[in-house]
């Protein structure tokens, strides 16, 4: 019996491979940065070949450093930055354009036209998404428009589309398997999440040929085998795939209806498990597929906060008030003010539930006595306020209150932030012992498919003791603080910078 599961976590800024043993313990890991290119303001692209090479490199490094034989890997799980779009030639395996990254705004005019043409409700009803450049569909259209002859080649069946999971699966299997999973398909804006099929009406709106789309499969099943040349001599089954936020939900074992997780990384992604029926949002949230396993699909509501941990990077690199992100915790603890300063980090607009792309950041409540520490504390608190905004929208949509917030991601290591989050929502915040739940989620999905772990109950026995932060603030005070935040956001939205004047 093989002894390990290997997880590939292909994130926006870096790619990692993590090897787990049967107890769910991390045995080895390797990481490599991925470069970004910004061809024009607001455009974000990556080289799909660089991603593929980086994935091979991290697999090799994790195996070599641990001394684990490739034949000892029972299965591979893939989790990935979602929505990022690649189109490649079926024969040569070469991408015909850079990968267009989820953050890129280059296809905003295509999304705006869909809205102007009156398709917003149809798109939301079918896909659960709000038409936006964020999702893959407009990115595919852009590539077909910008590469000479691409539309015709796609119609002839010579080009393939894939999100990162699909690209890696296709590469690892030597071009034998062109497939994605429900979670990634649900982020393309081409997939009907109700009947679980690519939607011909949506494809027609953007003139995208069905022939180029991957087969959609469950998040936990054997899709194919990595060919020995790509897996260092072994034929290893690729057995789990899920978008990174969904993998984090699964890694947290937030598998019951009403369970909520928040991953505090560069951005913050809050997801509520809503069970086996899609629930459309009236409050600016996205409806998405959480996972498809054993023939059943589970749905989620999701709110994305664009600026979370990256606000700490701004304090470090832009404002230069801290040298390292974790220092924000000591600084916040040293602040003596009464939380009267608010920082609204709307650096690239406001995400869920506001969706205001014109808004820009603002600071409120400064006095002559405001210190650097107060400023850092207020910036850190903005992560918690923004997360509460999303949880409020979830409550408005479902009537459910978060009973316990499961947290993970790099910034969840900040104890001040976790305590403040618990105070603000007046509910316990439970931090996973291993905050890298994305990679473990993909490992669980793969491990279940190959029988490495027998069932969810077995997975539950693997989880180490989490850290729990209980609410310590009187409810009235938490409400007052939150009211202050709401008025700060409102004021931020009123201010429209003079773009011509380049403020
Ligand atoms: N102790 C900390 N306090 C606050 N922010 C932190 C802390 N440690 C890391 N961060 C922030 O978390 C982010 C990194 O988290 P990670 O989960 O690795 O993100 P991603 O997966 O998006 O790359 C960075 O933006 C960093 O500034
Ligand atoms: O790679 P991350 O962790 O920044 O996650 C990106 C999200 O999947 C985008 O939707």
UniProtKB/TrEMBL annotation:
What controls how active this protein is?
Answer: Activated by phosphorylation and inhibited by fructose 1,6-bisphosphate (FBP).
The annotated pathway is:
Polyol metabolism; glycerol degradation via glycerol kinase pathway; sn-glycerol 3-phosphate from glycerol: step 1/1
Q: Which reaction does it catalyse?
A: glycerol + ATP = sn-glycerol 3-phosphate + ADP + H(+)
Q: Any idea where the Carbohydrate kinase FGGY C-terminal domain is?
A: 261-449
Q: Which residues bind sn-glycerol 3-phosphate?
A: 12, 82-83, 134, 244
Give the superkingdom in one word: Bacteria
* Enzyme class, UniProt record, top EC level: transferase
Question: A biological process (GO) annotation for this entry?
Answer: glycerol catabolic process
Presence of keyword Transferase: yes
Q: Where is the Carbohydrate kinase FGGY N-terminal domain?
A: 4-251
* InterPro entries registered for this protein in UniProt: ATPase_NBD, Carb_kinase_FGGY, Carb_kinase_FGGY_CS, FGGY_C, FGGY_N, Glycerol_kin
What does the entry list as the binding residues for ATP?
Answer: 12-14, 266, 309, 313, 410
Looking up Pfam families in the UniProt record yields: FGGY_C, FGGY_N
Keyword annotations: ATP-binding, Glycerol metabolism, Kinase, Nucleotide-binding, Phosphoprotein, Transferase
The UniProt PTM text for this protein says: The phosphoenolpyruvate-dependent sugar phosphotransferase system (PTS), including enzyme I, and histidine-containing protein (HPr) are required for the phosphorylation, which leads to the activation of the enzyme.
Q: What is its EC number?
A: 2.7.1.30
SUPFAM superfamilies in UniProt:
Actin-like ATPase domain
Modified residue annotations for Phosphohistidine: 230
GO MF: ATP binding; glycerol kinase activity
Residues that hold ADP according to the record: 12, 16, 266, 309, 410, 414
HAMAP family annotated for this entry? Glycerol_kin
Instruction: State what this protein does.
Output: Key enzyme in the regulation of glycerol uptake and metabolism. Catalyzes the phosphorylation of glycerol to yield sn-glycerol 3-phosphate.
Assembly mode: Homotetramer and homodimer (in equilibrium).
Checking NCBIfam families in the record gives: glycerol_kin, PRK00047.1
* Family, per entry: Belongs to the FGGY kinase family.
The protein depicted here goes by the name: Glycerol kinase
Q: Which organism is it from?
A: Weissella viridescens (Lactobacillus viridescens)
Which gene is transcribed and translated to give this protein? glpK
